[in-house]
Amino acid sequence: MSVRVAEPGDAPAIARLYSQLLGSDRVSVTPARLSQLKDDPATRLLVSVNDTGDVIATALLCFCADAMFNDQPFAVVENIVVDEANRSAGIGTYLLSEIERICLERDCSKIMLLSSATRTAAHRFFERHGFASATKRGFVKYRREFAASAHDPLKEGLNK
User: Fold this and answer.
1) Where are the domains of the chain?
2) What is the CA radius of gyration of the chain?
3) In CATH, which superfamily holds the domain spanning 2-149?
4) Partners of 120 in the beta sheet?
């Protein structure tokens, strides 16, 4: 098994993994987008591949610039998925260790991730690997909710 940066040709395999994560086929992973991500220095879309070259896991790793610790970034990990047929075989552990290695190489101050509130097995996995859920609380607002709460503080007189 190895971990590498995703290639445009990995699009179908990554789409399959994302469909497993969401329980839906409403994902769209294109070779063009994977090519853009590959060229983005602040992003690494990683894949784990088995000995025959099949993509069996993925994780999106983003490096965020910060001002708190000089030029030290922090990392955000999203969409960690191990293929259903390959779970509990150490693949997720290997992927997370590679993420940590990359983050040390980039001098990241921390690694943050979010996990769906209902994915309790994933929570236990992350906690076994040193991620603490009690120290911070994550909040998410999805695009479909943006317009519902959007307001203009100037029109509402809040900036007087």
Assistant:
1) 2-149
2) 18
3) Gcn5-related N-acetyltransferase (GNAT) (3.40.630.30)
4) none
Alpha-carbon distance 53 to 1, whole Å? 8
Predicted structure pTM score = 0.86
The DSSP-derived string for 74-124 is EEEEEEEEE-GGGTTSSHHHHHHHHHHHHHHHTT-S-EEE---TT-HHHHH
d(CA 40, CA 105): 17
What is d(CA 87, CA 80) in angstroms, rounded to the nearest whole number? 12
Pair 49, 2: CB distance under 8 Å: yes
**Local confidence band at 152 (pLDDT 50, 70, 90 cut-offs):** low
Task: Please check the confidence at residue 137 and state whether its pLDDT lies above 70.
Answer: yes
CA distance 61 to 83: 18
Q: How many Å apart are CA 15 and CA 81, to the nearest integer?
A: 11
